[in-house]
Amino acid sequence: MNKRALIIGATSSLAARICHRLAEKNYKLFLVARDAEELEIIKNDLRVRYNAEVITQKLDLSYITFSAAEFVQNIEEKFRFPDSVFMVAGDMGAADAREENIERVTKINYLQPAKILEIIAEKMGNRERGRIIVISSVAGDRGRASNYIYGSAKAALSTFASGLRNKFSHDNVHIMTVKPGFLDTPMTYGMHSPLIWSRDKAAKTIIKAMRRKREVIYVPFFWRYIMLIIKLIPEKIFKRLNL
Ligand SMILES: NC(=O)c1ccc[n+]([C@@H]2O[C@H](COP(=O)([O-])OP(=O)(O)OC[C@H]3O[C@@H](n4cnc5c(N)ncnc54)[C@H](OP(=O)(O)O)[C@@H]3O)[C@@H](O)[C@H]2O)c1
């Protein structure tokens, strides 16, 4: 029987590569994002290349009326319950700390993903199988002046994923946290650095780690060590750095 994967934030350039890897392995895919036109393009591409069975759904995580319970119920009705769920949606937002920006960025990067994942993990726990891949960020490992609103939302998401892993580890539900450093996606457009990995390489690494049941991975791997050093810098010095 084909496996089923739900990808939230499927129009992300990283998610699109993940979709290709899953379609190659005969997964049925349920793709969710804000941009309905882009979803159609990805769906048609996956059908042509891999003869994949793909369903799409438009979703805006910042909508006031969004209900996680209704969202999950709708997926079950249209798709049956997924074996694997990839939470890729994210938005760095503006660097400013205005009230509406804090609210929006927190909602998209933490609050709504957490509500959805709690319901999904509970259902996977009842079925005693499933896996959840949470795309967080190295930005959540330490607050920096340039992106601490986004970073703090991702920190909350990483902590949430850690707690979820702890809670459902006895129910055969595997939860993996992915902390990307810099990848060559629209989010990093214009940044030039040898520390930036291709999305293809990142997607392959994520799928491999998922199959090996890894818990927390950094992508590229060397960001684990970069962040270790960054976390060790004393606050007195760190606050003076322009990072
Ligand atoms: N790129 C990097 O170097 C990097 C580094 C660290 C972490 N990350 C994380 O990795 C993930 C993918 O990053 P990316 O660079 O591939 O991002 P991206 O191309 O900008 O894609 C972001 C995804 O999130 C969706 N999204 C944004 N706001 C949404 C909303 N309000 N409601 C529903 N969906 C929404 C987008 O949907 P639409 O396209 O339909 O709007 C898109 O599918 C994100 O979680 C990001 O935080 C990336």
Describe this structure in words.
With 243 residues, the chain is of the alpha/beta class. The chain has eight helices and seven strands, in the order βαβαβαβαβαβαβαα. It has one domain (4-238): 3-Layer(aba) Sandwich (Rossmann fold). It has helices at 13-24, 36-50, 68-79, 99-127, 148-168, 199-211, 223-232, 235-238, and strands at 4-8, 28-33, 54-58, 84-87, 130-135, 173-180, 216-219. A seven-stranded parallel β-sheet has the order 3-2-1-4-5-6-7, sandwiched between helices. α3 crosses α4 and α4 (99-127) runs parallel beside α5. The longest helix is centred in the middle third of the chain and has 29 residues, at 99-127. The chain starts with a strand and ends in a 5-residue tail after the last helix. The model has no long low-confidence stretch (mean pLDDT 94). Residues 9-15, 33-35, 38, 59-62, 88-91, 108, 135, 137, 180, 182-183, 185-188 line the site of NADP nicotinamide-adenine-dinucleotide phosphate (NAP).
Keywords:
alpha/beta, 7-stranded parallel β-sheet, 8 helices, globular, binds NADP nicotinamide-adenine-dinucleotide phosphate
CATH-defined fold name: Rossmann fold
Question: In the CATH hierarchy, what is the architecture at level 2?
Answer: 3-Layer(aba) Sandwich
Query: What would the principal axes of the Cα set say about the shape?
Result: globular
Under CATH, the homologous superfamily reads NAD(P)-binding Rossmann-like Domain
Low-confidence stretches: none
